[in-house]
Specification:
Chains A, B: InterPro entries: CinA (IPR050101), CinA-like_C (IPR036653), CinA_C (IPR008136), Competence-induced_CinA (IPR008135), MoaB/Mog-like_dom_sf (IPR036425), MoaB/Mog_dom (IPR001453). Chains A, B: This is CinA-like protein. Chains A, B: It comes from Klenkia terrae. Two copies of one chain form a homodimer. In chain A, helix 5 crosses helix 6. With about 425 residues, the first copy, chain A, is of the alpha/beta class. Chain A folds into three domains: about 180 residues, MoaB/Mog-like domain (Molybdenum Cofactor Biosythetic Enzyme, Chain A), CATH 3.40.980.10; about 70 residues, 2-Layer Sandwich (Alpha-Beta Plaits); about 150 residues, CinA-like (Maf protein). Chain A is about 40% helix and about 25% strand. Chains A and B meet through helix 1, helix 2, strand 2, helix 3 and helix 5 of A and helix 1, helix 2, strand 2, helix 3 and helix 5 of B.
């Protein structure tokens, strides 16, 4: 095992789930690429004693500790102060830094057209400019400077203090990596590869049986499996020396699960985007129960405007008829939640947007709207393209949010099977 | 301070960000309502030594420890075993429990129509049925049983072991609360209130000045402020005895920020949904750059079909014209990203869906597509309703994901200001 890092994410808003942390995972992936394994991400609120004990916990087993958040101008933003105390370093206002932050705040307020209370701004600015003695300042990207704080006694890991807003943290990252105490840790890092196999339609217990069977050939691999939204991911981390063992794992999975192995790397979003891109095809959507999440997922990718002309979310039957040409008679005889309407939605999306591929989704997300023969969770999907038609009907367990997420993933696999073949959605 | 709890979320897929943790925040909120303050959420991968040290860290300062995940049938699912070891309790297979799990797995496989390898299933089942001596079994909701494990020596907190899938964890929660060791902790809990004030258009530094000014009147309040997507949240936790102090905080915020105070509780989604519901109005969307995220956010709420007939995502100019009636001449003269097109999108959404309110969004999410006079981040929004028209034009900083998220929030505030007045979006 090479060098390791631990991450503290601060903020009561993260701890209580009002804000979803994006920094822990982003930092973990950046560090992994640099060969630093992340053992723990700790989320703490805005209490100094909790941050202090988190730093102690992570310092015990890691070569580098990183914090995100708590660098704002309000009194609950305490990270710089607490890290300084933890590292045994007195903090003081860096007057030149305070001036630089002040200039940034003035520009920002002017751009937003907000009135500024100069005195309030100045107090906040001076708070943000407090720097522990001997710490390296990372210049602000937003208004908050970051820090690299070496331990006071020369033992323990250096602590990298980064701002909470993901855009600021990411923009500051290169400066953090360039700091001498961080470089010294990176010099001890070893390459750590990560590769992923993806199955669609294999239960986790069968995969477990295969892994047990070939276990003695897999030394040096750290394998984790994760079933979500019907997709079984096998993620393996390994040093380059274990490359042959990884190949044996791939061979075993191919041999036992060739029929459900959809990818030896890229996720289904990438498979679909690449298939559309390489064949110059476009796709349009017509959704009811997923309410725009399918088209939003397709459009998540930069450049999606080249292959997604658009989509319609048609919750009401009137919208299904008028915007997508679904037949009133079909709605009257088999109902909106039916394979027939899914097909007409797909056809409608395709023709209204002039797209090569159309996909239709109709179902009951709940909690209301179910009936004995069409329970909550019932959903029908259909994708139509130049090469044919694929369909899927199922009942998705779980709540409204789980239903929508799972159904969107099934929709992505429907497009994948239409464009690339492989296991049916 | 009353009783406290700490949470461990296990799983390399969470640690590396492939899966977003929903359990930590959910558990934190449930525990808060029961009067148990959550100090830390720790995310660890699937390594036993990391889970063990996380348990030690959390046990040192908490009255209750909870874990989620790591109860599956594969070899990397180690939580039950490690918790048993940590609490000094030997684990052994509970044969009757193994039979019950086996029956569940058989039913599940049959329903999915998956072929089952009986031997593989049995090994996984027996692994899932290993129970530390003296632990209480929480009956499986999916296939994995939960556990309540008392400490071996009578000191240290009990550990509640819960499954990773949020639906299973939530369904198992009442059984966990009913367990005697958990009830004993809850008996020591004290009521902990949480209330939220929301400002739209006030910089954090000005709020900080107000909080400093009235600081001596706010004893007993734990105040955190969080600026995101332009919204400034003030979340306060306090014991009932500090109710008068909370009222003083509300008065101070009302006095200083009456013009930007949009809510003394509900979030903007609730404000908009309630305003539509109480007036019996419907809303339809026409989005380009936000790609369906606005309509998806409106539809996130159960029952949304009553007030959202649907929306159109029109990425291409052709779709804007044909599906929403945007004028070809407007597109040719001022371009798709313009206040004029935002207005026509809003009108088009309103008329095509026969909705009372229409909202249009057009902008450049990036990374491509910008120009000197319309840089990446440029966006125009317009909402039209029975009482008038509101608009907003701005340049949003940050990457594609940040742009879309922020723009959707501005769209929600545009609807809020159209329906309820208050500070402009």
């Amino acid at each position: 095992m090479g060098a390791r890092a631990g991450i503290v994410v601060t903020g009561t808003e993260v701890l209580t789930g009002r804000v979803t942390d994006r920094n822990g995972p982003w930092l973990a992936e950046q560090l992994r690429r640099l060969g630093l394994d992340v053992g723990q991400v700790v989320v703490v609120g805005d209490r100094p004693e909790d941050l202090h004990s988190a730093l102690a916990y992570l310092s015990a087993t890691n070569d580098l500790v990183l914090t995100s958040g708590g660098l704002g101008p309000t009194a609950d933003d305490l990270t710089a102060q607490v890290v300084g105390d933890f590292c045994g370093r007195e903090s003081a206002v860096d007057e030149e830094l305070a001036d630089r932050i002040g200039a940034i705040v003035d520009r920002l307020m002017a751009r937003r057209g907000w009135a500024v209370d100069a005195e309030a701004t100045r107090e906040g600015t001076r708070k943000q400019a407090r720097v522990p003695a001997g710490a390296l300042v990372l210049e602000p990207v937003g208004t908050a400077p970051g820090l690299v704080v070496p331990p006071a006694q020369g033992d323990g890991p250096p602590v990298v203090v980064l701002p909470g807003p993901p855009t600021e943290l990411q923009a500051m990252w290169p400066a953090a990596l360039a700091a001498a105490p961080v470089r010294a840790v990176l010099d001890r890092a070893e390459e750590l590869r990560q590769d992923t196999l993806r199955l669609w339609g294999t239960p986790e217990s069968e995969l477990a049986a295969t892994l047990r069977r070939v276990d003695d050939q897999l030394a040096g691999l750290e394998i984790t499996t994760c079933l979500r939204d019907g997709e079984l991911e096998i993620v393996t981390r390994y040093a380059p020396a274990a490359g042959a063992a990884y190949q044996r794992l791939v061979d075993a999975v191919r041999a036992d699960f060739g029929g459900t192995l959809v990818s030896e790397g890229p996720d289904v979003d990438t498979l679909v985007a690449d298939a559309l891109g390489s064949r110059g095809l476009t796709v349009a959507t017509a959704e009811s129960c997923t309410g725009g999440q399918l088209v939003a997922r397709l459009i998540d990718r930069p450049g999606a405007s080249a292959w997604v002309p658009g989509g319609v979310v048609s919750y009401s039957n009137t919208a299904k008829q008028e915007l997508l040409g679904v037949s009133a008679q079909t709605l009257a005889t088999v109902g909106a939640v039916s394979p027939e309407v899914a097909r007409q939605l797909a056809d409608g999306a395709r023709s209204r947007f002039g797209a090569d591929v159309g996909i239709g989704v109709t179902g009951i997300a709940g909690p209301g709207g179910g009936s004995p023969d069409k329970p909550v969770g019932t959903v029908h999907l259909c994708a139509v393209g130049p090469d044919g038609v694929v369909t899927r009907s199922l009942v998705v367990p779980g709540d409204r949010a789980a239903f929508r997420k799972r159904t969107v993933t099934v929709g992505m696999h429907l497009l994948r099977s239409l464009l690339l073949g492989g296991p049916p959605a």
